[in-house]
């Protein structure tokens, strides 16, 4: 799959139709139609030394018309390809949620989706097999709400023409909202020193209110929980094209460590796009289990699911480093977790005046 540029509509349409034509050719040759898909599980993730990210391995599963369920999956794929080709013809776009509902209007009940998870998974299958990113066939997720605030001037392509936006001077306190396809953004001027990707909206608001982006020439990216693909893509572009260090600031729990992992190394569901989305050089800034101990932060006890998740991460190839093994083992020992906002126990300005500057210096970012 090409990760360097956006396909134009005609190229994307042709690659999708080639996939449908392959089904037809299998029919014509007397073969039972099938489609091979990489197995999207942790056990099928392997390290790509060239790209420094985690990608799918050689294991695959087969969607085959030999079974009724397999035939229905291929039928749904064919109907979806037809819809996407028409959408590209008309220069329209739709959301993943809309696709699920749109299928109810298709003339065969067997082609309609039973759940949105089913339609989402099919879009991922088509991405992998056709080598076309969903952004290139104009499929959008629901709004992620992710925002950017910092000393960066961009040019954005819109249906009403190009517009220039400064991500501090031309936006309100909410910041600049990341579009579905950040490859339509052109970087014009940049006065930033680094990127700080922040998990929660509350912490993002604290940093902006305290002027952290101004004082430290920092681009604050709100991840909005588990970050959307557009957020990860823009973060990677700022690192690769603007040569900016990327740091990731999350809660101190196993689920938040996975947010860091998706930014740095990619996620299981989108491992076929790791070279396009992941920023392997990203560094984790906190909350560290060591911070919980050092700053005596307010905490909650680890739940059984937290413990299981931490133990799973010790086996996760994305976390098999000395740093992560030390931190995770410490957390299992103290049996505590802590949120970003717990730093407010030391005052509302502690995070911007003390905690982050100290960590950034330790990490040689400032």
Automatic annotation (TrEMBL):
Catalytic function, reaction form: ATP-dependent breakage, passage and rejoining of double-stranded DNA
Keywords: ATP-binding, DNA-binding, Isomerase, Magnesium, Metal-binding, Nucleotide-binding, Topoisomerase
Domain Spo11/DNA topoisomerase VI subunit A N-terminal: 73-138
EC number: 5.6.2.2
Annotated ranges, domain Topoisomerase 6 subunit A/Spo11 TOPRIM: 194-360
Subunit structure: Homodimer. Heterotetramer of two Top6A and two Top6B chains.
Entry similarity comment: Belongs to the TOP6A family.
Name under which the protein is recorded: Type 2 DNA topoisomerase 6 subunit A
Gene: top6A
